[in-house]
């Protein structure tokens, strides 16, 4: 009898919660003081769709949530800044910070030729490119992008209320217009710190969503940004960069990446910190592997990786160990092939209504699909080996998951991994992920 009563109660609660989620708007949910975890668990997406869909930033609503907000190379995004009187950073400094962050992203987009890329066959807007013109104006109802520092509004309050966790920042648009592909919205930054470099870093992250960058696509878009900003492990040089030494957006030909960097992590946090921020101690490398590579004990080495060639699925790399004291460079060449495991496309793109091409025989008429602006990113694990001598090749794997990582086999029984500073810190401190 008791079991029947419990089951009946659960059925009623489930029905009531589903009814609430199907019928309420965002404002109604707050007015009714509904438990936000209950709403989030059942139908936050449907609530988003009732408000127009297309939320972006810290979670939310639809397949279009990571879409680029503004398309059209002949257009201009008008933006403005609102600051709460008690916000710990001055209005003038915030104005400079916003402009600097926009320019950083424009430089990044041009660096990877994303600013000039076009998507063909979008219905109602032929071959659009990203909008790269931004001009500041006084805030008004028609402003395209509003930066809110310590200031909120009903839309942001509603979204935060319905989330299971409170974030420090948010990029949010009310809807995604698949006709105009012009989607005004807000970037909200909480009054969480007096350190301008941390505010700048969070601003860069949220602005990345406006350009269609997904979480974990590049250093500043790391999924656990709130934990980094709240942590005591990082200092000034860590923040304010779109890419880091070991976490670029892509591996470009002949561009040397520093795998051993710990720039911005405070001293004494990581083990073997007698080395500078660019190097690691050879003592952290297994002895068998250290001897095979002819590395000196009790020394510090900067470790770099450079892609030198590609032919079809065969990739050539140079791995270098540079002695911090003598500057002597030991370099090893290696050949690697892609695995078949895809890690997902991290670049910006558009999920929208497409006109079917003549080559798309499987489709009749129009289709809905996600199409990226970027092609050929090297985001797959690569397996191969580095040549030590004419008779010896060290098995290795190069991975690109939340930054570059290198795994090398010592030839006997042990693998050695060199990860990004965040993952090394996680392993050393056994803390929540960053």
UniProtKB/TrEMBL annotation:
SUPFAM superfamilies: Metalloproteases ('zincins'), catalytic domain (SSF55486). The keyword Signal applies. It comes from the Bacteria. InterPro entries: MetalloPept_cat_dom_sf (IPR024079). One of its GO terms (molecular function) is metallopeptidase activity. Keywords: Signal. Residues 1-20 form the signal peptide. This is Matrixin. It comes from Pseudobacteriovorax antillogorgiicola.
């Amino acid at each position: 009898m008791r079991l029947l009563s419990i089951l009946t109660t659960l059925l009623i609660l489930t029905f009531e919660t589903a009814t609430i989620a199907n019928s309420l708007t965002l404002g109604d949910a707050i007015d009714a003081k509904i438990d936000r975890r209950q709403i989030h668990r059942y139908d936050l997406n449907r609530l988003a769709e009732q408000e127009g869909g297309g939320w972006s930033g810290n979670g939310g609503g639809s397949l279009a949530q990571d879409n680029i907000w503004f398309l059209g190379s002949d257009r201009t995004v008008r933006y403005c800044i609102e600051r709460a009187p008690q916000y710990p950073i001055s209005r003038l400094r915030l104005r400079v910070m916003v402009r600097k962050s926009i320019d950083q992203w424009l430089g990044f987009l041009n660096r990877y030729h994303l600013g000039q890329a076009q998507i063909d066959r979008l219905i109602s807007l032929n071959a659009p490119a990203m909008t790269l013109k931004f001009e500041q104006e006084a805030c008004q109802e028609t402003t395209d992008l509003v930066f809110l520092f310590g200031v909120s509004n009903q839309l942001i309050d509603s979204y935060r209320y319905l989330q299971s966790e409170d974030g420090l920042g948010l990029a949010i648009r009310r809807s995604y217009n698949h006709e105009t592909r012009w989607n005004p919205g807000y970037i909200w930054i909480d009054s969480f710190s007096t350190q301008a470099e941390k505010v700048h870093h969070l601003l860069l992250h949220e602005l990345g969503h406006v350009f269609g960058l997904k979480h974990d696509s590049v250093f500043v878009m790391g999924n656990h940004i709130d934990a980094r900003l709240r942590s005591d492990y990082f200092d000034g040089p860590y923040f304010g960069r779109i890419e880091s030494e070991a976490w670029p957006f892509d591996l470009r030909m002949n561009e040397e990446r520093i795998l051993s960097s710990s720039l911005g992590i405070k001293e004494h946090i990581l083990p073997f910190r007698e080395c500078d921020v660019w190097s690691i101690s050879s003592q952290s490398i297994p002895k068998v592997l250290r001897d095979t590579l002819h590395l000196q004990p009790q020394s510090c080495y900067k470790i770099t990786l450079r892609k030198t060639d590609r032919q079809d699925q065969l990739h050539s790399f140079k791995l270098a160990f540079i002695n911090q004291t003598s500057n002597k460079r030991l370099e090893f060449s290696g050949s690697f092939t892609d695995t078949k495991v895809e890690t997902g496309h991290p670049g910006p793109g558009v999920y929208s209504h497409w006109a079917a091409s003549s080559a798309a025989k499987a489709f009749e008429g129009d289709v809905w699909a996600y199409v990226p602006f970027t092609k050929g990113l090297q985001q797959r694990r690569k397996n191969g080996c580095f040549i030590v001598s004419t008779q010896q090749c060290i098995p290795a794997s190069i991975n690109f998951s939340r930054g570059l990582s290198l795994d090398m086999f010592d030839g006997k029984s042990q693998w050695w991994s060199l990860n990004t500073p965040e993952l090394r810190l996680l392993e050393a401190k056994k803390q929540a992920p960053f």
